[in-house]
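Note to self: keep these together.
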Amino acid sequence: MPTIKSGAFVQQCFSSHPLSLNLKTVTPPDRVVMACANCDMRHRLTWRSVITPSGEGTREGADDFGKCVIAHPAEVRISMVDVMNDAVKVRCGECRRTYTFDVSAFETYRKKG
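Structure:
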């Protein structure tokens, strides 16, 4: 299967089986790959920015997201996909923090082997 450069597949995957989307890898400075255990697809997201709630509203969240991924990667899951606005929200179940990604590119491919 070739790489498909559209958010439609991640949107469909999230709609059909949201609990099957797990963090696979993060490639600094701006990429995250989510793997779907149900359909065996990988969804690579390239982001422009990451924001997270703070006491004063929102703030840049890429550093916090990186710490979360290192500390408890199994708890990081997609909680919302909005391809019309190029946005994906990710939630960490452990620390209960949410991260909203402004996505510049959606790519889907099937894992090899």
